[in-house]
Design brief:
Helix content: 25-40%
Number of strands: 19
Bound molecules: flavin-adenine dinucleotide
Radius of gyration: 23 Å
Strand order of the largest sheet: 7-6-15-16-17-14-18
Number of helices: 15
Strand content: 15-25%
Length: 490
């Protein structure tokens, strides 16, 4: 296994549990790849960026369970939104059958006009009635589709954009409509629980503690600071890898789980059926994510997280409170006050740590760190009045310029499958063809798919991929009607 991000880790753990002896080689000093924690110069540990999962991410949940991290992810049933004037709204599920389960909270949602809501309801219903696959969306952008669906500008800016830019790390005008529609279908329309937001209560690094053990107890090995310089092929087969220190590694089969921008430098030109797929990787563009971290001297926020409308900042995570996690999700806001009064868990006695996230942050990339901090402080003052006179102990900005591949129209043709025609060599990574956007779920899916392909190539086929959440209510009926084979599955 080359690469210790989620794709490499998930395939390593799955294969080790299935009885394979796995050697995982990671170039950096830590595991987790893009979903990892850093140590700041002052010694404090921060995640490179807040990572959230959703209820519909069934493979990621399976991976966390395998490595004993399932309990470290807390799920929240209520989503909190705030507009420019500081007005709060929430979205949550009700007992109504999908896709109607969110209708009651949507009806009372404050940030949208009646005509915005009417246009949104019409578009959502058209996705659901088509079983998630509305007609004639090939090659068009999400923005094109929204215009076609006659969405009001308020609906586009304050609803579709708010949800999709952070889910897909791309602007609506550059996003393949099928990706945007799939987010709504899988997370918000298909089932009661798909939209639930899962947030780690520990630093990301702590989620991977069980990986090393899962691999080594089956006789395998996990090595960090161990970069691969070259992947060798002979007569169309993987024959070994050369490490950065010049030593050689020989194994029966290999999964390369490195970023798509790295792989072409490791492989010989023309690898795998002429190498057209390798050339194709150059067409995969990337988009940036910026996170801004503030340590306030006092308590400034009671919600566990907030989604912002009308601002550059898209999400604010109350890291102090999230590290405590809710007892019961529907008590989250109440518990926040309780925790603060007791001075437990969230430990606000020593202030509050907030993390702000801005996806598709193209405009911020050229701006200085101080400019970004100033902009975010102004936005915090809008939505969290307590920050206005609160002292900031320290603040830091992390720009991930190549955070994820951009899901632009037609992007799937550049995403190779895990099996690229080399008998004992497979690919994993969020950028490989999983039909999922660049997410932790996409990375784990790719890892499981590559592990399935590898196990089959060694004569011991295994199944690792988990089923999607089952559709419910009317969505199930419409999914059945739309599916060509009548299986009604996701
Ligand atoms: C800022 C940011 C925020 C994000 N937020 C979310 C979120 O909220 N929810 C979500 O689901 N997803 C989120 N993502 C996306 C998610 O992090 C990625 O999709 C996922 O982590 C990708 O995993 P991967 O294993 O495919 O790739 P990577 O994590 O990139 O792993 C590749 C690994 O290969 C290693 N490597 C590279 N070259 C070599 C070599 N020569 N030899 C050995 N090893 C090598 C790298 O060091 C790395 O560890 C976010 C991403 C970023 C950057």
């Amino acid at each position: 296994m080359i690469g210790g991000g989620l794709a490499g880790l998930s395939s390593a753990v799955a294969l080790a549990e299935a009885g394979f002896q796995v050697r995982l080689l990671e170039k950096r000093p830590h595991l987790g790849g893009r979903a990892a924690s850093y140590t700041l110069p002052d010694g404090s540990e921060v995640d490179n960026c807040q990572h959230v999962t959703l209820g519909c991410c069934t493979n990621l949940a399976d991976f966390y369970r395998r490595v004993g991290a399932g309990e470290k992810i807390h799920f929240y049933d209520r989503l909190y939104f705030v507009d420019k004037g500081g007005r709060r709204s929430t979205i949550e599920s009700s007992w109504l059958p999908p896709p109607l389960h969110m209708a009651p909270s949507f009806a009372f949602f404050g940030g949208l006009t009646l005509s915005d809501k009417r246009s949104i309801a019409k578009a959502l219903l058209s996705i659901a009635r088509a079983g998630g696959h509305p007609p004639e969306i090939d090659g068009i952008t999400m923005l094109d589709w929204l215009h076609r669906m006659k969405q009001t500008s308020g609906a586009i800016e304050r609803f579709w954009r708010v949800v999709l830019v952070s889910a897909l790390d791309e602007e609506l005008s550059r996003t393949d409509a099928s990706y945007g529609i799939e987010v709504f279908w899988k997370a918000f329309l298909g089932s009661h629980g798909g939209y639930r937001v899962g947030i780690p209560s520990v630093p990301l690094a702590d989620l991977y503690e069980g990986c090393r053990e899962a691999v080594t107890k089956k006789g395998g090995e996990v090595r960090v600071r161990c970069g691969v310089r070259e992947i060798r092929l002979e007569r169309g087969r993987f024959s070994g890898a050369i490490l950065e220190d010049g030593s050689a590694v020989a194994v029966d089969a290999c999964i390369a789980a490195v970023p798509h921008r790295v792989l072409p430098d490791l492989l010989p030109k023309g690898a795998g059926e002429g190498g057209a797929w390798l050339e194709g990787l150059r067409h995969l563009k990337t988009s940036p994510i910026t996170s801004v971290h503030f340590w306030f001297e006092k308590q400034v926020m009671t919600e566990p997280f907030l989604t912002l409308m009308d601002h550059t900042t898209q999400w604010i995570f109350n890291k102090t409170l999230l590290s405590a996690g809710p007892d019961r999700p529907d008590e989250t806001a109440g518990r926040a006050a309780h925790l603060i009064a007791d001075g437990v868990g969230g430990d606000t006695s020593s202030g509050q740590y907030l993390q702000l996230v801005i996806s598709a942050s193209y405009d911020l990339v050229p701006r200085s760190r101080q400019e970004i901090i100033d902009l975010c402080r102004r936005e915090l003052a809008d939505v969290l009045p307590a920050t206005r006179d609160a002292k900031v102990r320290k603040a830091t900005v992390i720009k991930e310029v190549n955070a994820t591949f951009s899901p632009e129209p037609g992007v799937d043709r550049w995403r190779p499958s895990q099996n690229i025609g080399i008998e004992n060599f497979f690919l994993a990574g969020d950028w490989t063809r999983t039909h999922w956007p660049a997410t932790m779920e996409g990375a784990v899916r790719s890892g499981y798919l590559a592990a399935e392909a590898l196990s089959a190539s060694l004569g011991s086929p295994q199944r690792f991929l988990q089923p999607d959440l089952p559709f419910e209510g009317f969505s199930k009926m419409w999914a059945c009607r739309a599916s060509r084979n009548g299986t009604c599955s996701a």
